[in-house]
Amino acid sequence: MMLYNKKNLTRETLIEDDKGKEMKAIEVFCSTIRYLKDQLMTDYKNQATGVQESDIMWVLTVPSIWDDKSRQFMREAAEKVPICGDKLMLVLEPEAASFYCRHLPVQKDCNNSTIGVFESGEKYMVVDAGGGTIDIVVHEVKDDGFVKELHKANGGDWGGTKVDALFTCLLADIVGKEVMETFRSIHKYDFINLLRNFEVKKRTISPTCHDIVTFTVPVSLSDTFSEKNPGCNITDAASKSKFKSLLTWKRDKLRMEAKLTKTLFDGICKQIVDHLKDLFMHPTVKDVSSILLVGGFAESLMLQTAIREAFKNKNVIIPKEAELAVLKGAVICGHEPEKISSRVCRYTYGVEAVIKFDSTIHPKSKKILHNSLEYCGDIFSIHVRVGQIVEVGEPQVKKTYVVTEPDQISIEFKIYTSNNKEPTYTTDVGCTYLGKLTIDMPDTSKGVDRGATVQMTFSGTEITVTAVDKDDPERAVTTKVDFLG
C-alpha cells in the first residue's frame, strides 16, 4: 500500500519499519524479490531439474490501481536483484486472474454456477479482492481470442486488511490504545497469529450467521492489559466497554454477537458495491453480463453475498481457490504475454509545445518572443487522451513539431501526463512532467523549415516515445518514459 499512497515516489523514497527505522524503499522491495528468486533457484538446484536462470521468464504482478511511477518502481527493484529486463514482465493482478479464469475447464464454482471458457464477444468484469486493494478490469473476448480492455483498470484501497484493521480497533477500544501498541511492539509473533486466526475466521462469517462468533486471542494481550492496569482483568474491561451487551472476553476467548461481527464488513462491502455500481453506469460497461470475483478477500461470504445481492441480474462467479487466481494467471501470462490487444488509457499523455500567440485566447503570461515573433508557451500538445483505446505495441498518433530558431541544432521534447482529458497548458492542475527526449538536427540549411515527428507506443505497462527528423528519417531517437524522474 505504500506505493499506492506515496504520491511523490522516487528512487530515494524511504520506508519505515515497525520501530521507525528508515531504509530506501527500493532496497526493501529488491531484497524481498531477491529472497523469492534465490529460494526458487535453490529448490531447482536441490531437485536437480537442470533448469537454468536464463530459462525463466519472471512475472511480477502489481495492483491495477498503481500509477505509472509505482509500476516502474517495481520493475527497477526487480532489475536490481538482478533479474534481466528482457526476462521480466509486469502484469496487472486482475488481468492475470482474468487469464486464469478464461483457461478454466467447464466446472462448478463455489456456488455451483457453471464456469468455463468465455466465447467471442462476451464481456466480463474481474474484481480482484486482495488484502490491500480491490483491483478491477473489464474485458471483451475478440474473434481472434485476444482480449480487449473496455474500461481503464481501476479500484481502491478497500481490501480485506481494512476489516482486520477494524477488528484490531475494536480490541483497542476495549483494552486501550496504549495496551494495544505495547502488545504489537513486544509480542509481534502473537499479534501476527491474532491476524492469521482472524483471517481464517472471517471467511466463515456470513449474513445469515446468528450465532455467537468465538475468536481466539493471544493470552499475552490479556497479560499486557493486566500489567498496564493493576487490579483489573480483561473480562472486567470487556464488561465495561461500549460493546458490553454484544461481547464477552475471558482469557484467550473473545465471544461476539454475530451482528457486531458483521458490522466489521459493512462499510468496506458498501464501498466496493458502490464503486461497481458506478462502473456499470459507464456506457462501455453497462452490458457486461459476468463478474469474476477472485483474490483472498473473495473467500469472504460477506463480500460474496453483498455483490450477489447488489447485482442479481449479473452472473457472479467465484472460482474455486479464488485466492490463487492471480498466481496461476501470472504463469499463463508468462507463456502468452501478448493476449491483450488493446488497453484504455488511464491518463492523457502529450508533449510541451509552442504555437503562435493569439491574444484572444492565450493569457499574456504565456507570451514568449522568438525572432520578433510572438508565441504561446507551455502548450499541452495531446497525443493520447484519458479513456482512449490504444492498440498495444502500435505507435499512436504522429505529430510534427518545428524549430523556432533558424540556427537551432536540436529539439527538446518535454513529455507530460495529465489526469484531465483536455489539458490546455502543461502548467494546469493535474499535469506532471515525466521526462524529455532530445533529437539533434545539425543541418541548419533550411532555417526554420525543419522539424521532427513524435509518436508514443504503449506496450504492456511501459511507454516508448520516438522522435524522427522529418527531413532525415535515419535520424531518430527513442526512449522509455522515466516516471521516477
From TrEMBL:
Molecular functions per Gene Ontology: ATP binding; ATP-dependent protein folding chaperone
Alphabetic keyword roster: ATP-binding, Nucleotide-binding, Stress response
Presence of keyword Cytoplasm: no
Domain of life: Eukaryota
InterPro entries: ATPase_NBD (IPR043129), Hsp_70_fam (IPR013126)
Similarity-based family: Belongs to the heat shock protein 70 family.
Protein name in UniProt: Heat shock 70 kDa protein 12A
Species whose genome carries this gene: Magallana gigas
High-level lineage: Eukaryota, Metazoa, Spiralia, Lophotrochozoa, Mollusca
